Amino acid sequence: MALYSEKVMDHFLHPRNVGVIEDADGVGEVGNAKCGDIMKIFLKIDDGVVTDAKFSTFGCGSAIASSSMATEMIIGQPVDKVMELTNKAVVEALDGLPAYKLHCSVLAEEAVKAALKDYFDKNNIPYDPAQFPDCPSCASCEMH
Ligand code: FES
Q: How much is the average pLDDT of 45-55?
Protein backbone atom coordinates (compact mmCIF):
# COMPACT_ATOMS: atom_id res chain seq x y z
CA MET A 1 0.00 0.00 0.00
CA ALA A 2 1.21 3.50 -0.78
CA LEU A 3 2.46 5.48 2.19
CA TYR A 4 0.08 8.36 1.39
CA SER A 5 -3.53 8.13 0.22
CA GLU A 6 -4.60 9.55 -3.12
CA LYS A 7 -6.45 12.30 -1.25
CA VAL A 8 -3.32 13.32 0.65
CA MET A 9 -1.35 13.44 -2.58
CA ASP A 10 -4.12 15.39 -4.31
CA HIS A 11 -4.35 18.02 -1.55
CA PHE A 12 -0.57 18.22 -1.35
CA LEU A 13 -0.07 18.65 -5.10
CA HIS A 14 -3.20 20.78 -5.65
CA PRO A 15 -3.85 22.49 -2.33
CA ARG A 16 -7.18 24.31 -2.01
CA ASN A 17 -7.53 27.74 -0.44
CA VAL A 18 -3.86 28.67 -0.34
CA GLY A 19 -3.23 32.31 0.44
CA VAL A 20 -4.02 35.15 2.74
CA ILE A 21 -7.25 36.99 3.59
CA GLU A 22 -6.20 40.59 4.15
CA ASP A 23 -9.32 41.61 6.09
CA ALA A 24 -9.72 38.31 7.92
CA ASP A 25 -12.02 38.21 10.93
CA GLY A 26 -9.77 35.69 12.66
CA VAL A 27 -6.16 34.63 12.13
CA GLY A 28 -4.48 31.69 13.82
CA GLU A 29 -0.81 30.84 13.62
CA VAL A 30 0.67 27.74 15.19
CA GLY A 31 3.91 25.89 14.94
CA ASN A 32 5.43 22.61 15.95
CA ALA A 33 8.63 23.20 17.87
CA LYS A 34 10.07 19.81 16.99
CA CYS A 35 9.69 19.79 13.22
CA GLY A 36 9.72 23.58 12.84
CA ASP A 37 6.64 23.68 10.61
CA ILE A 38 4.36 26.72 10.78
CA MET A 39 0.72 27.02 9.74
CA LYS A 40 -1.40 30.14 9.48
CA ILE A 41 -5.16 30.06 8.90
CA PHE A 42 -7.33 33.04 7.95
CA LEU A 43 -11.09 33.06 8.45
CA LYS A 44 -13.84 35.28 7.09
CA ILE A 45 -16.89 34.99 9.31
CA ASP A 46 -20.30 36.47 8.52
CA ASP A 47 -23.28 36.07 10.80
CA GLY A 48 -21.62 33.25 12.71
CA VAL A 49 -20.74 31.29 9.58
CA VAL A 50 -17.26 30.75 8.11
CA THR A 51 -17.69 32.11 4.61
CA ASP A 52 -14.04 31.82 3.54
CA ALA A 53 -10.83 30.29 4.80
CA LYS A 54 -7.30 30.42 3.48
CA PHE A 55 -4.00 29.04 4.69
CA SER A 56 -0.28 29.63 4.44
CA THR A 57 1.75 26.67 5.56
CA PHE A 58 5.49 26.46 5.75
CA GLY A 59 5.75 22.76 6.29
CA CYS A 60 5.69 19.20 5.09
CA GLY A 61 3.34 17.69 2.53
CA SER A 62 1.08 16.25 5.22
CA ALA A 63 0.76 19.66 6.87
CA ILE A 64 -0.15 21.23 3.52
CA ALA A 65 -2.69 18.48 2.76
CA SER A 66 -4.13 18.81 6.28
CA SER A 67 -4.50 22.59 5.99
CA SER A 68 -6.07 22.28 2.56
CA MET A 69 -8.58 19.67 3.75
CA ALA A 70 -9.33 21.56 6.97
CA THR A 71 -10.20 24.74 5.04
CA GLU A 72 -12.47 22.74 2.72
CA MET A 73 -14.20 21.20 5.71
CA ILE A 74 -14.94 24.46 7.51
CA ILE A 75 -16.03 26.79 4.70
CA GLY A 76 -19.80 27.19 4.92
CA GLN A 77 -19.95 25.84 8.46
CA PRO A 78 -21.27 27.69 11.53
CA VAL A 79 -18.65 28.68 14.09
CA ASP A 80 -19.88 26.24 16.74
CA LYS A 81 -19.50 23.37 14.27
CA VAL A 82 -16.02 24.57 13.27
CA MET A 83 -15.08 24.56 16.95
CA GLU A 84 -15.68 20.82 16.92
CA LEU A 85 -13.20 20.16 14.11
CA THR A 86 -10.67 17.56 15.22
CA ASN A 87 -7.43 16.43 13.68
CA LYS A 88 -8.98 12.97 13.62
CA ALA A 89 -11.75 14.22 11.33
CA VAL A 90 -9.16 15.83 9.06
CA VAL A 91 -7.16 12.59 8.93
CA GLU A 92 -10.31 10.59 8.15
CA ALA A 93 -11.24 13.00 5.37
CA LEU A 94 -7.75 12.51 3.93
CA ASP A 95 -8.22 8.72 4.07
CA GLY A 96 -5.50 8.48 6.68
CA LEU A 97 -1.98 9.64 7.43
CA PRO A 98 0.97 7.53 8.59
CA ALA A 99 1.15 7.45 12.40
CA TYR A 100 4.34 9.50 12.50
CA LYS A 101 2.57 12.22 10.45
CA LEU A 102 -0.51 12.57 12.65
CA HIS A 103 1.00 15.61 14.36
CA CYS A 104 0.76 17.46 11.03
CA SER A 105 -3.03 17.21 11.20
CA VAL A 106 -2.90 18.41 14.80
CA LEU A 107 -1.41 21.66 13.49
CA ALA A 108 -4.49 22.14 11.28
CA GLU A 109 -6.87 21.70 14.22
CA GLU A 110 -4.80 24.03 16.36
CA ALA A 111 -4.57 26.70 13.65
CA VAL A 112 -8.33 26.68 13.03
CA LYS A 113 -9.00 26.94 16.77
CA ALA A 114 -6.44 29.72 17.18
CA ALA A 115 -8.17 31.65 14.36
CA LEU A 116 -11.54 31.20 16.06
CA LYS A 117 -10.09 32.37 19.36
CA ASP A 118 -8.74 35.45 17.60
CA TYR A 119 -12.22 36.08 16.15
CA PHE A 120 -13.85 35.68 19.58
CA ASP A 121 -11.29 37.99 21.20
CA LYS A 122 -11.63 40.70 18.53
CA ASN A 123 -15.41 40.68 18.79
CA ASN A 124 -15.67 40.34 22.57
CA ILE A 125 -17.50 37.06 22.17
CA PRO A 126 -17.34 35.14 25.44
CA TYR A 127 -15.93 31.60 25.44
CA ASP A 128 -14.66 29.01 27.84
CA PRO A 129 -10.82 29.24 27.86
CA ALA A 130 -10.76 25.49 28.50
CA GLN A 131 -11.86 25.12 24.88
CA PHE A 132 -8.45 26.41 23.85
CA PRO A 133 -5.79 24.41 25.67
CA ASP A 134 -2.23 24.94 24.49
CA CYS A 135 -2.31 21.74 22.53
CA PRO A 136 -5.85 20.45 22.05
CA SER A 137 -4.92 17.12 20.60
CA CYS A 138 -2.02 15.95 22.67
CA ALA A 139 -3.63 12.56 23.10
CA SER A 140 -3.27 11.88 19.40
CA CYS A 141 -0.02 13.72 18.82
CA GLU A 142 3.09 11.64 18.34
CA MET A 143 5.52 14.49 18.68
CA HIS A 144 5.51 15.42 22.33
FE1 FES B 1 5.96 19.06 10.82
FE2 FES B 1 4.46 17.64 9.24
S3 FES B 1 6.53 17.27 9.75
S4 FES B 1 3.88 19.37 10.40
A: 98
Average pLDDT of the segment spanning 98-106: 94
Total of domains in the chain:
1
pLDDT, residue 139, reads 46
For residue 35, indicate whether it is catalytic. yes
133 inside domain: no
CATH number, domain containing residue 14: 3.90.1010.10
The tens digit of pLDDT for each residue in 72-83 reads: 999 999 999 999
**Secondary structure, 3-state, 76-98:** CCEHHHHCCCCHHHHHHHCCCCC
What is the CB < 6 Å shell around ligand 1? 32, 35, 37, 59-60, 62-63, 101, 104, 107
